[in-house]
Amino acid sequence: MTTVAPVRTGRDAPPRDRLAEPGAAPRPGRRGALVPALLLLLPVAAAAIAPGLVAPFDPFANSGPALTAPGWAHPFGTDDLGRDLLSGVVYGARTSLTVAALATLLACAIGTGIGMVAGYFGGLIDDALMRFTEFVQVVPRFFVALLVLTLFGPSAVTMALVLGLMSWPGLARLTRAETLSLRGREFVRAAEALGGSPAWILRRHLLPHVQRPVLAVAAPVATGAILTEAGLSYLGLSDPNAMSWGKLIQTGQAFYTHGWWLPLMPGAAIVVTCFGLALLVEGLRPRF
């Protein structure tokens, strides 16, 4: 006598991973990372956009006794010249985040363009662009930026350009992989059959599909730019007329035995910003 295997209904079928289904809602744990990310990044963004409204004092003016410990009058304390450290950190956010934003935008533009062209055309164009991408990827960007800033002088714009020109290879490889997966799709073939030019197809049909994963990777690029900018500023290669987090750490290290807060506060600002960007990526990952 043969037995018939029971047919599973939707009620007793094993659960499926909802993230594997198109349009599925993200997991609550990852979606919950957006809230702490915004709580960390919104104050930093406000300081970068409108430092004059957030900072209580002029960061370059004497506002109290030198080396005053953190308190009600000066929440982050004062430095060796009596300048309010909170105001310095707030104005430093504008410099550090401006460099990171410009470098990230430039890297996204270059990486997306090169990756889409390489993935769509393939062949010799793909090989040449990928070999060039690999060459740029192995060049240490910190030392390139160090050399350029030493030759041409410290400037926030120069620093952003160098970091942007050296940070795009990972974005190019990601964009190329996405373009390769889309190149044979029906909507691309239909656009080609209708006589659409490669530039029009890349801009109209492929760019909307590749920009979402690129945006998800942009936050780690910005994190790397913030850390590199801080390292270069620590070495004295930042704009001498502007505050930056790395410069504050550099000036505070000489007084850390008498003023532990001097290197701690700008360092904490860097950690909080980078951690907030990491949480932002984790929260947005299921949506991309």
Automatic annotation (TrEMBL):
GO term, biological process aspect, one: peptide transport
Protein species of origin: Halovulum marinum
InterPro entries: BP-dependent_transpt_permease, MetI-like, MetI-like_sf
Comp. bias regions, Basic and acidic residues: 9-20
Full protein name: ABC transporter permease subunit
Domain of life: Bacteria
Family (UniProt): Belongs to the binding-protein-dependent transport system permease family.
Localization (cell): Cell membrane
One GO location term (cellular component): plasma membrane
Keyword Protein transport carried by entry: yes
